[in-house]
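Following up on my earlier message about LHQ. Here are the inputs again, as you asked, copied directly from the submission form:
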Amino acid sequence: MPYTTLLFERSEGVAQLTLNRPEKSNAFDDALVNELIDALKIIERDVDIRAVVITGAGKNFCAGQDLAPMLERYRLPGGVSFGAHLRQSYNIIISRIRTLEKPVIAAVNGAAAGAGLGLACACDLRHASQNAKFRMAFIGIALAPDSATSFLLPRIIGLGRAAELAFTNELMDASKALEWGLVNRIVPSEELLPRTLEFARELAKGPTRSIGLTKRAFNYGLTAELESALENEAFLQEIAGRTADHLEGVQAFMNKRPPEFKGK
Ligand code: LHQ
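Thanks, got it. Here's what our run produced:
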C-alpha cells in the first residue's frame, strides 16, 4: 500500500521508519497509525531486515494522538470510544514493536509526547538529540495513560519518577532523560540519524535470532516469577543453541577470528 504519512527506507539490513507529518509534530492520525502497523508487519516478515530505526521528520519525534480529528469525533452521535480507538491503534503498534524479534531504536529528534512517548518507550533503545524532550501529556488533557506508558515507563525510569513526569506533565529535556535512564545516549542533533543508523547497521550484522530471543526473554522477565523466568531461559536457550549463528560464534571464538553472523 502506498504510504502518505510514513517514510519507509531500507539499506544494509536496517529499516528506517520516519513519521512524516512534520507540520503536526508527527502526531498520529488514522493514516499514520495504519501505515506504521503495515510497515511493522512487513519488517516482521522480511528476514533481510535485521534492525529498525524509528524517527520523526522535522523538529519533533511524535506528539502522540492528533488532537484535531478527535475533537470532530466528539460531535458524532454516540460520541467517541477511546477504548475501541486504543485497541485498534496504539495497542497494536506497541505489541508489534515489543514482540518484533529484531532490535528497534528510537532516534528521538525532538518532542515525544503521549502516544509518542509510548512509541519511544516500546523501542529497545532510545537515542536522543540535544533537542529531544519528553512529556507524558495525558494529564495535560485530563486522560489516563495509554500506549503502554503505564507499563513501560515505571519499568524504565522507576515508579516515583514516572509519577512525577505524569502528574506534573513536565516537558523533560534530554539531559534529565539521560540522568533518569530514559535515553541511552545524547547525540548532537545533526549526528543523531547518521550515528543511530551506523549503530543499527552494526546490530544488523549481529546474531539476529539471539537478539530476538534476548528481547523475548526480557519481555517475559518483566512480569515473570524467578522459577518461570529460569524455565523460560532454558526453553529459549534450547532454540538459540540450535542456530547456525551460535555454531559460528563458538567456531570464531575458538579460531580467534571475528564471527560472521547471518541472522540464522
Ligand atoms: C499537535 C499536537 C497534537 C495535533 C503538537 N495534535 N497537533 C489520545 C486521545 C484519545 C485517545 C487515546 O489516546 C490518546 C493518546 C495521546 O497521545 S494523548 C496525548 C496527545 N498529545 C498531547 O497532548 C501533546 C500536546 N503537544 C505538546 O505538548 C507540544 O506541542 C509538544 C511537546 C508535542 C511539542 O512542543 P513544541 O516543540 O513547543 O511545539 P508546538 O507546541 O509549537 O507544536 C508544533 C505544532 O505541532 C503546532 O502546530 P502549529 O500549527 O501551531 O505550528 C501544534 O499545534 C502541533 N501539535 N501536538 N497532539
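One observation from looking it over: The chain has a mean pLDDT of 97. Hope that helps, and feel free to reply on this thread.
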